[in-house]
Specification:
alpha/beta, Pimeloyl-ACP methyl ester carboxylesterase, 17% strand, Rossmann fold, eight-stranded mixed sheet, 269 residues, AB_hydrolase_sf, AB_hydrolase_fold, globular, 12 helices, AB_hydrolase_1
Length: 269
């Protein structure tokens, strides 16, 4: 498994194909294996690169320390993309990885050619119609899942988190492969209690001038659609696609449609 040393940390990654680089950032409870359904289709036209973020599999982390923060992962990814030496990359982020991709576009636009935000996770602040202080269900779901994990109920923690993103029965509907990946990364929930993820704001969204594809599943939860709606209204250069027969995990729920949408977007002049 190849890796790059970034900010004193070894980041393992998967890759496929050659050509212009497309970097894929996974979300919560996942790692680079989440993108397996995308690697061959994207690799047929691009150099597809999917890293595992700091403290995710294959690393085993005990939840101790101050290095599981959104800002840490943003700067790690900025270093990773620079270390690839491929120039500006096309960047795809899903869920928590979509939030990281958004922050990268805000802070390091020179590293990115085009941006794909697949149901970026997080809350909206008041400037985008959110509640005062950006509070919402997300923090409560993280805390509840982490408490179950601390109590030794790992599967209960996975179920609670899955239902936050996918509704009742979401854990039971996941494939054995996705469940195994989530269980391998269960310990990262301890870091998400205090990851310091700021809500999306109008000024940050308006500052992003990159061509951006906003993607969501047709059967996804309302909180993800609300974020897409808000970003579409204020970001400078967006298009939007809905993946049929898919919920939050659209890239594995309906990989053929997701891959086709991303490839169509990346193929535009």
């Amino acid at each position: 498994m190849p890796s790059l040393t970034v900010n004193g940390h070894d980041m393992a990654y998967a890759e496929a194909g050659s050509g212009p680089a497309v970097v894929l950032i996974h979300g919560s409870l996942n790692d680079h294996r989440y993108w397996a359904p995308q690697m061959e289709p994207l690799g047929a036209r691009f150099h597809a690169v999917a890293p595992s973020l700091r403290h995710y599999w294959p690393e085993r982390w005990d939840g101790v320390g101050e290095t599981f923060k959104i800002d840490q992962h943003v700067e790690d990814m900025a270093g990773f993309m620079a270390a690839l030496g491929a120039g500006p990359v096309d960047l795809v982020g899903h869920s928590r990885g979509g939030h990281i991709a958004f922050r990268l576009a805000e802070r390091h636009p020179q590293l990115i050619r085009r941006l794909v935000l697949a149901e970026p996770g997080g809350e909206l602040d008041e400037s985008l119609g959110g509640v005062p202080g950006g509070a919402g269900k997300q923090a409560g779901a993280f805390a509840a899942a982490a408490e179950l994990l601390k109590a030794g109920d790992t599967e209960g923690a996975m179920r609670r988190f899955a239902e936050h993103t996918g509704g009742p029965g979401a854990w039971e509907r996941r494939s054995a492969v996705r469940k195994a990946i989530n269980l391998d990364n269960a310990h990262t929930l301890l870091g998400q209690i205090d990851e310091r993820r700021r809500p999306y704001g109008r000024a940050a969204a308006e500052s992003i001038r990159l061509p951006t594809l906003l993607v969501h599943g047709a059967q996804t939860q309302p909180q993800f659609v609300a974020v897409i709606d808000a970003l579409e209204q204020v970001m400078a250069d967006t298009s939007r696609v809905v993946i049929p027969n898919a919920a939050h995990g659209m890239s594995s729920d309906n990989p053929a449609a997701f891959n086709a949408a991303v490839l169509d977007f990346l193929g535009r002049a």
